[in-house]
Amino acid sequence: MELNTFQKQKIKFTFDFFLDYNKDGAIQWDDFQEMIKRYKDVNKGSLSDADYKLMLASLEDEWKDLKALAHANEDHPVYANEDHGARVYANEDHGARVHANEDHGASVSFDAYLAMWEKTLATCKSVSDLPTWCQKMIPILFKGMDVSGDGIVDLEEFGNYCKNFQLDCEDVPAVYDVITDGGKVTFDMNRYKELYFRLLTSPSADAGNALMGKKP
């Protein structure tokens, strides 16, 4: 499935802001570890040890999917990481696998990340069609935003989320107003799932943009 320019921009946003922590233009396993560390730093205990274990397992599965798809497509390779001496071997079940440092010694380009989402979104009609690792991440990401743990993200918590992840949100109250549809909708887990899915799949600007700190 060929994504349009706007959809590609959203995928690039996710890549740049939430995954490529060292800003080298590629994803390494170390970037995923930094993601977990940042959540621990900013969430002040709202996520339990069990949440972090699930987050780690979900990221492991994402990493495997990403590498498998990238290896299967010569145009979007996974590059060996010289520091870890990664070596690539064919794998009948997954296209390929990387042997190095527990399968983590590789570097994945944005093109590979984009290719993964193009393949995923081609048959994605609802949240239940997303990869299992992605579905497992949704409640964790929500809980990371809902620092109070009351099941609702209020304006202050949303503002802190934008600040902590350095989102370029010029008008937090206005963006939060989009999320709650002018106060008609509660920003709970169900609303987050809806917005998350729209952020991933919508071909044009809509309320899903709010998770990037943007109005439609």
From TrEMBL:
Which residue ranges run through the membrane?
Answer: none
Q: What's an example of a GO molecular-function annotation for this chain? A: calcium ion binding
Domain EF-hand: where?
Answer: 141-168
Species per Swiss-Prot/TrEMBL record:
Branchiostoma floridae
InterPro entries recorded for this chain? EF-hand-dom_pair, EF_Hand_1_Ca_BS, EF_hand_dom
Keywords tagged on the record: Calcium
Q: What is this protein called?
A: Sarcoplasmic calcium-binding proteins I, III, and IV-like isoform X7
Task: Locate the coiled-coil region(s) and give their ranges.
Answer: none
